[in-house]
Give the backbone structure.
Amino acid sequence: MRIRQRKLATRGIAAGAVTMGMLLAAAACSSSSSSSASGSGSASVINGAGSTFAAPMYEQWAGQYHQKHGVQINYQAIGSGGGISEYTQGIVDFGATDAPMSSTEQAAAQAGQGSTVLHIPMIIGAVTMIYNLPGVSHLRLDGPTLANIYLGKIKTWNSPAIKALNPGVSLPSTPIQPVERADSSGTSYAFTSYLAQISPTWASQVGVSKTPSFPTGTGATGSSGVAAAVQQTKGAIGYVEYSYATQGHIPVASLKNASGQFVAPTPASTEAAAAHATFPTDITHLVFSLNNSSASGAYPIVTPTYVLIAQQPKNVAAGSAVRAWLEWDLQKPQQAESTKLGYVPLPSKLVSLDLAALKTVK
């Protein structure tokens, strides 16, 4: 299965090259439409790339904003790692990531942009465990069992560990087929962050990464690729943002949270994790984790997703347009729209911190 993963990863690289070409073409078109305003005013076309986790929301907001304000927003869902890279290189006007930049990435981005790069949290969502197990409509898992599945230690669906969590459920002897992201992914970062919190073995052997070296399983590119692979593979399990599960009508597992409750991923259980969180007050570094909340009813794998924007954008017109779009996204009507796609709005305190951070963008 690792050979297949490498093949899928190669195809992901090829797809990324095509996406790169699309972005470069879009950037070329946008540069001609906005270059005359690069010293002042606002661009009529802006380009962004990154998170597939947040893509459904950004694409919806982009369409609505274009209708109301006439600004075209081109967004390519190429994964968080790709979004960080392309923003650092100046290929796009904003990056999108579910994983905070590492110190090395932060330094590179700030060198590339020539100023401090802000993380602006935009929405909050759940990483769901989807599965393909005909005849099993309700499945319960906990963190240690999930870690052992992806470590390759639990190999069949009727293993004692899974049976103990699902009394009365007829579990088949079907081999478990783990599916994971083959590209650099903020969803992988959130997933491995949770497993590292729960499993000392995972923390020491695999760790936390946008590109983890999974001991077992098959890779697929993008959240849509993982969803498709799980749908097509009997016995498969994978991790995707909640909307990919609901839109694809794919069964999701309930997970045991830090309070000992088995909780299904829903907007309500996602919001329960966010409602009791402590947020940073440094507006130049608004990054935080919502995983493994001990709040009652909280789903245990929950993450914010960020847009990257420089405090002093090189292209003033594009930077002004991105800031205006983000400020519009953070208003109550737009935040409320997030629930229709399975995300949850940001708490009001966090919105206030975001708006304060955006005011520093010159």
